[in-house]
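3.2 Worked example (two chains)
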Amino acid sequence: MNKKVSFGLVIGLLATTFVGGQSASAVEYQQTIQMVRNAVPGLDLRAPVRGSLDVDASSRSTKGDSIHLVSKSGYVEESLTFSIDYVNEVTAMDGGSVVLSGDDPSVSALADGTPNGFQVFTTLNSAPKSKRFDYTFDVPANTVLIETPEGFLMQVGERVIGSIDLPWAVDSNGRQLKTHFEWKNRVLTQVLDEKLSQLSYPVVLDPAWGYIQQYNLTYSPAANFAKLQTCFNCYFPVTGAPKKFPTYGQLLPLRVLEIGNFECTMGPTFTGMDYRAFQFYATKNHVDGYGSNITFQFVKVGTQSKLVVDAYVVNDFFIVGQYFYVSMAGLQWQIFANNLNTSTPRT
């Protein structure tokens, strides 16, 4: 099974309630942590996780240069180095959380490690000088982004090396703000498509953790999707799956014995060039928690057809263990890939 670091990159906007645009102090750092916790109940930015986020030793000493952060996954022996280009000074570090500031006193960043990657909060205490926020990744020059319904897959040759969530931001009135990503020369840019003077501060985003796994497939995305149309549960290896391909909104009483209740409803399907996908939405009975979802994608990566499973998980599973959860789920999706790779129709 070919795994990768899932960046879990949730690059959004979080405006703090600080006044005057002062560079964050240690006290303000604690206020930032508390601000994020208050905005997202149940989130513990300093909870022990298998993954880690640290400042690269080579960028610790000189103020004014880019700060390089190293994210290590808790599930695979891989790491990723990246920089938040609009900041250049480490203000504070605490239990895997890093606060950084830059030349624009209204802008700072809070980066935090997750079990399988990292998340970055851009913080604004007033209107920033620019509406563009750059992140440079230490990845091969030929890295491209494959757009999916849930975000982007980061592709190098015939391998997916990361996933990036769709960007979004909400102001203090609960208004969804317009924002989008751009990708060029290994730089990911989030652009805020709003008039800064019309924003109501603070602006808050909703983070979560997730996992992504990929498996080589023998047949094309279209051929694999066609197999599921003929007999869904002949290939999809979860108890409770129907024989007929599910319709939008259909209740699916899925259950995986090792993990538990996977009850969900059928979401949308997607069709594109060398791309097919379908999505499940978790019900309140789902072990992942209401609001979770999972997307099964059949995609051509280079010349290789792949199954890419991308999950967004609300519950943290710190007691049971996220590593155990992902491992068990991975076994199910490997069986799914094996079933699709069979040369004779299944019944």
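3.2.1 Second chain
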Amino acid sequence: MHMLVDGEWREDAYESTNDDGEFDRQETSFRDWIATDDDARFQPEPGRYHLYASRACPWAHRAMIVRRLLGLEDAVSMDIVDPYRDTDGWQFTPEKDDCTPDSIMGADYLRELYTAADDSFTGRVTVPVLWDREEETIVNNESEEIIKMFADAMVDVGTTGVDLYPAELRSEIDAVIEDIYNPINNGVYRAGFAASQSAHENAVTELFDALDHWNEVLADQRYLVGDRLTLADVCLFTTLVRFDEVYHTHFKCNVRHITDYEQLWGHTRELYQLPGVAESVNMAHIKEHYYTTHGDLNPRRLVPVGPDPAFTESHGRGDLPGGPPAGLSD
């Protein structure tokens, strides 16, 4: 991925692998928080914040889903970038289906928002981005922190009354999110971008060991943290919904499909069928992004036709205790 160096766009700077051929994901850079404290710089005010997202990206998809489940659509506006990312980075192509213009600055490329926030910025230009209209700057570009801000400081601004981050479960939710991050959420990337056979095999082994484990957990409980839908489930979902159509083939994570896992596949279908979630999944954007953007992995940029998992079939999770919050009932 090309990046900004001292505010200048560089096409010869990339996210890298280490000496063992293992994929190294760079840390995100903007890490401020929306908080309810009286002296907080960023207050939870409706209409103040704007989300930049991609329907292709699993990290941005987290923020989009939480925004929808909490009913923050009117409080936090949103723009969508093009799924294809070329050497100029994420771009705005409003003429393309399900993409938008940049409604804040009228920018052509997302990197213009980064340099508007910091004209000497060095780092990757990533989605999601949470923008503050009042101070005209980036608040945060770390997906886990954005969804926690939405579910904490911004929850009372939402319209559904849904609590995805209950105070009494936060330590457990945080632990599960951490447990699934490296082997699963980032694990598919570690497998796909590995630069050595051993690094690839290690990542794939850890990935499927973790999938096996959570499939067993979900045999006895409806969600990752007991009988309540939480942020942890959303974090898992955005990887699993892409798995069979992208990661299984493109990143060579082909030991099993998610549809081979009874509980994980049921969990994926249940979340897909929550109000507004199916509309957030644009598989055409997802497949176009991965198969056409990563030319080193797919030089001819051919996009597979299948396999088209049946996300709308009955999920079969209703016999387990718990269920979606009342605010998410149709």
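3.3 Remarks
The first strand starts at residue 3 and ends at 5.
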